[in-house]
Design brief:
This protein has helices at residues 13-116, 178-181; strands at 2-3, 6-7, 124-134, 140-150, 157-169, 172-177, 189-193, 196-204, 209-220, 229-234. With 237 residues, it is α+β, with helices and mostly antiparallel strands. The chain has two domains: 1-117; 122-234, Immunoglobulin-like (Sandwich), CATH 2.60.40. The strands form three sheets. Strands 5, 6, 7, 9 and 10 form a five-stranded antiparallel sheet that branches. Strands 3-4-8 form a three-stranded antiparallel sheet. Strands 1-2 form a two-stranded antiparallel sheet. Strand 5 and strand 6 form a beta hairpin. The longest helix has 104 residues, at 13-116.
Length: 237
């Protein structure tokens, strides 16, 4: 309605509320659409992640199985290598032992050949070897004599053995008889053989005595015996 130059506006609140309602509906619809869209994309993402997780778990299981297989192969290889190493050591030890045995056999063969066929060696009684080694106790000495008869083996040789140790005591020369150094100093060493004989025993050296040499004498007894012989051997250091 107009009065003169003025306009009169009529306020109608129903249109205002209707607009607000429409706006609210649009907002709700937009929120719903956003929710559904997010839900869809989230589900797809979760499905993809679940699939990737399953693939990774399967790959981890395969790698664990391969690792276990490699460990078993390594263990077998190590055991095989250890067996080969031990077998090689055993073979080396056995070979070394056989070489030592062969050397001993050759020495024995040479020894017997020297008795039966000594070549240009003068026939008769011989002191083949004199061996001295540390004994079972402090100050004790183990000795071994090997006596032989070469070329003339048709009869026995017999007699007594005399041994003495030459050395120093308080800076002065001194000679000690074996029978005084032996445990049973009343025992006389005898020999009787056709081809060879080993004589061995143990003596005790006084701590104040410094041995230098060993003198060995063979004194035959009886008719037709070879002449006496003597040999001096340095004391081993």
């Amino acid at each position: 309605m107009e009065t003169g130059n003025r306009k009169i506006l009529v306020y109608q609140p129903v249109y205002v509320w209707l607009g607000i309602a429409v706006a609210m509906l649009l907002l709700v619809a937009a929120a719903y659409l956003l929710f559904e869209s997010g839900k869809y994309h989230a589900g797809a993402g979760l499905e993809k992640l679940a699939r990737q997780r399953g693939e990774l778990e399967q790959r981890v299981a395969e790698l664990q199985e391969e690792n276990l297989s490699l460990r078993e192969q390594t263990a077998v290889s190590q055991r095989s290598s250890e067996i080969d190493r031990r077998a090689s050591l055993d073979v080396r030890r056995e070979f070394a032992g056989l070489q030592d045995e062969l050397l001993e056999v050759r020495k024995e063969l040479d020894f017997y050949r020297g008795i039966v066929s000594p070549g240009d060696v003068k026939p008769g009684l011989r002191i083949q070897s004199v061996q001295l080694e540390p004994g079972s106790a402090s100050g004790s000495v183990f000795y071994q004599l090997t006596l032989t008869q070469v070329k003339r083996n048709e009869r026995y040789v017999r007699g007594i053995i005399e041994m003495e140790v030459e050395g120093l005591e308080d800076g002065k020369s001194k000679v000690l008889l074996f029978k005084k150094l032996a445990e049973d100093n009343s025992k006389v060493l005898n020999y009787k053989f056709r081809y060879f004989q080993n004589v061995e025993g143990e003596i005790w050296i006084p701590p104040e005595f410094e041995p230098k040499k060993v003198r060995v004498r063979l004194k035959p007894q009886g008719k037709g015996q070879p002449p006496a012989i003597e040999e001096v051997v340095d004391w081993p250091t």
